[in-house]
Write a structure and sequence with these properties.
Blueprint (H helix, E strand, L loop, with lengths): L3 H4 L4 H9 L8 H8 L1 E6 L2 E2 L3 E3 L5 E2 L1 H13 L2 E6 L5 H7 L4 E7 L2 H4 L3 E2 L4 E3 L1 E6 L19 E5 L3 H15 L6 E5 L2 H9 L5 E5 H10 L4 E6 L4 E7 L4 H17 L1 H10 L15
Parallel strand pairs: 1-5, 1-6, 10-11, 10-12
Antiparallel strand pairs: 2-3, 3-4, 6-14, 7-14, 8-14, 9-12, 9-13
Helix pairs in contact: 2-5, 4-10
Protein name: Amino acid ABC transporter substrate-binding protein, PAAT family
Keywords: Signal
InterPro entries: Solute-binding_3/MltF_N (IPR001638)
């Protein structure tokens, strides 16, 4: 399974290429979309459960469900153009598509090149335990509350490295470290937890949500640790009207509770999302 870090990587060379040909982008894409009756969106549907291709070849997932609502709000058809993830922002800046529909981590560097919509997703590591676990109950969850316990984690991932960082912090405070059981797959982390060889699984909230859906009522998330990153879409810088329409639809889905239902359905977890001040500074 791809990690969030690798999935959202984008080469500097690709960004530079797109920026160099930005002059071809339309200054009023919203009117053009309405005139032609379709919204053309770039996507790399290889990032389940956010966006992926099902057995019938349909593009499905949490993000496409939201994009369907955007197209309905516009009163137009939705047309996807599949492409490699590294080519999406250059294609957007070049004007080859109206918007992009792959889930992007919101970063200050990307904000220099594109205009982000309000976030619809969140990436952060969290702790998953068995439903009967009582030892990890601190609110908010702290690194200290995990001292002396055993964690199951997928090997060579960002969550594994974060656990090692936590152990450095615990040692510095004279506390017992976390015992780390590194395995080869996400499913193996679940097996390690359920056979009581580990006290908790540490991974991204969406990964943990998927595991919880496999065993309803037997697992629970008890808190998040580490930095969060917001997940959003982007338009060209000068497409403020289209960007605002997309953002308005996301906010409307949030206000109605529909967004939370889609989160639970596709991600197995719900979370709060900001509507302002979500772009990090450099």
């Amino acid at each position: 399974m791809k990690t969030f870090t690798s999935r959202f990587a984008l080469t500097f060379a690709a960004l530079t290429l797109g920026f160099g040909i930005a002059c071809s982008a339309s200054a009023d894409t919203l009117d053009e979309v309405k005139a032609k009756g379709k919204l053309v969106v770039a996507i790399d549907p290889t990032f389940a459960p956010y966006e992926y291709t099902d057995d019938a070849g349909n593009i499905v997932g949490y993000a496409p469900e939201i994009m369907k609502h955007v197209a309905a709000r516009l009163g137009v058809q939705l047309e996807y153009q599949k492409m490699a993830f590294s080519g999406i922002i250059p294609a957007l800046i070049a004007g080859s598509v109206d918007a992009e529909g792959s889930s992007l981590n919101v970063t200050a560097e990307r904000a220099d090149k594109v205009l982000f919509t309000v976030p619809f997703g969140k990436s952060v590591n969290a702790v998953l335990v068995r439903a009967d676990e009582q030892r990890i109950a601190a609110k908010p969850l702290t690194v200290e509350s995990l001292a002396g316990l055993t964690a199951a984690v997928k090997t060579t991932t960002a969550p594994e490295q974060l656990l090692k960082q936590f152990n450095t912090e615990l040692k510095a405070k004279g506390l017992e470290t976390i015992k780390i059981v590194s395995v080869d797959s996400v499913d193996q982390t679940l097996a390690t937890l359920m056979t009581r060889r580990a006290d908790f699984v540490f991974d991204d909230i969406t990964v943990l949500g998927g595991l919880a859906q496999k065993l309803p009522g037997k697992l629970k998330q008890v808190g998040e640790l580490g930095d969060s990153q917001w997940i959003s879409w982007a338009t060209r810088k000068d497409d403020e009207r289209l960007n605002q329409l997309i953002s308005d639809e996301i906010l409307a889905l949030k206000a109605s509770g529909e967004l939370q239902k889609l989160q639970q359905q596709y991600l197995g977890v719900t979370f709060e999302l900001p509507s302002t001040d979500f772009i990090p500074t450099k």
